[in-house]
Design goal:
Layout (H helix, E strand, L loop, with lengths): L2 H17 L6 E3 L6 E4 L26 E11 L11 H18 L3 E11 L5 H17 L3 E9 L5 E11 L13 E6 L4 H8 L7 H4 L6 H10 L4 E4 L4 H12 L2 E5 L11 H6 L6 E6 H15 L3 E8 L5 E4 L5 E3 L10
Parallel strand pairs: 4-5, 9-12
Antiparallel strand pairs: 1-2, 2-3, 3-6, 4-6, 7-10, 7-11, 8-10, 9-11, 12-13
Helix pairs in contact: 2-3, 2-6, 6-9
Bound molecules: adenosine-5'-diphosphate and magnesium ion (MG).
């Protein structure tokens, strides 16, 4: 069978099955925005403190934290074109898409490993520019670059970043916590990147030049600390795909209210639903708390938050609902590699 028949998500599912269930130390394995593992106890690292607090110790000096780990890759001619890409922006984006995954778990980023695969004739200056972009964003979030790998590539340029982060146990948000009766909320607007790409097919400018990736760390922190949010994901492959992933992981159904979707300027509804690369947060919270959380995030960050749907029982599936309450099935599922 060819990859094109299975698709990116089918392949991940197949591999996950073959890999099997992780050990107890793995809090969240394959299937979320980041992996989550327990920090190994290492008492000698904290001077004057005999041992790290146990998971359920009350009144502990230190909150119990989890380690977050994620990795994301950008490939020439899939994610960017060499001719029209600003390498500072490309480096910035390569790190930003990883930060977005850490944010989606309610965490903060800490350390990064950067891997470069480039042709032997590739410009050193461009790699330095790439790193300028990475370092600019790393500095902003106090992320330290602690290593990586450098290899030659027969043709296309490859940039892969592995990012570590941490989150206090009680603030961890995953894709699998959505509950029937939750409202679905999103930060920002959707369809912008898809609209940019569409407009730019004949223009000299490629998408990466024209929009900068968001890092919704601040918003995510407020959402996870609010205490009532049940699930969160970042929208790399489109709003519909994000809701689909949350619904699948949480074993629920969902309704997306078409008239409530926040559509970016110059984008259309189709692009807002299926476009992707917005790196906005998609999260769920009990309906009663939705307006309060929306207002809190908006007030503290000036980032727009919209209530775009609701979580329903699994048997109702995932539907798009128009202003008159008429439900329709999904046309497609969002961006997928190999398809
Ligand atoms: P995101 O878009 O948030 O970066 P992905 O859709 O890339 O997430 O990945 C979904 C899940 O599948 C993640 O938990 C990721 O770690 C896992 N995954 C992706 N590719 C592989 C692979 N080749 N082997 C094992 N797990 C993978
Ligand atoms: Mg993600």
């Amino acid at each position: 069978m060819k990859l094109s028949q299975l698709g990116e998500f089918g392949l991940i599912e197949l591999l996950a099955k073959e890999i099997g269930k992780p050990s107890k130390k793995v809090v969240v394995g394959i299937g979320d925005d980041t992996a989550v593992i327990q920090f190994p106890a290492c008492p000698e690292r904290i001077r004057g403190v005999p041992s790290l607090p146990r998971e359920n110790s009350r009144g502990s000096q230190f909150p119990v934290k989890y380690q977050l780990i994620t990795t994301d890759t950008l490939i020439e001619n899939i994610h960017f074109k060499l001719k029209t890409t600003s390498f500072v922006n490309l480096g910035y984006k390569a790190l930003a898409i990883n930060i977005s995954d850490i944010a989606a778990m309610g965490g903060i980023p800490t350390y990064a490993l950067v891997t470069i695969g480039a042709n032997r004739n590739f410009s050193v200056k461009k790699i330095e520019d790439l790193y300028k972009g990475i370092r600019k964003l790393a500095k902003k979030h106090k992320i330290q670059i602690i290593g990586g790998d450098t290899v030659s590539s027969p043709k296309e340029l490859v940039i892969s970043i592995t990012l570590l982060g941490e989150v206090e146990k009680e603030y961890l948000l995953t894709r699998s916590g959505a509950k029937v009766g939750d409202a679905i909320l999103v930060t920002g607007e959707f369809g912008g990147p898809a609209a940019e790409k569409f407009r730019m097919t004949n223009a000299e400018c490629f998408a990466l030049k024209c929009f900068s990736t968001k890092c919704r760390i601040k918003e995510a922190k407020i959402i996870s600390r609010f205490g009532s949010a049940n699930s969160m994901i970042d929208s790399s492959d489109g709003l519909v795909r994000s809701v689909l992933e949350v619904a699948k992981a949480s074993k629920v159904g969902a309704r997306i209210w078409l008239d409530s979707v926040s559509i970016a300027k110059k984008a259309n509804l189709e692009q807002a639903l299926y476009g992707g690369e917005e790196y906005e947060l998609v999260f769920t919270v009990p309906r009663k708390k939705a307006v309060e959380l929306k207002k809190l995030v908006e007030k503290k960050t000036k980032t727009k938050v919209s209530i775009v749907g609701e979580i329903v029982a699994k048997k109702y599936g995932i539907k798009l609902v128009d202003l008159h309450g008429k439900a329709s099935l999904l046309k497609k599922k969002g961006y997928e590699h190999f398809k």
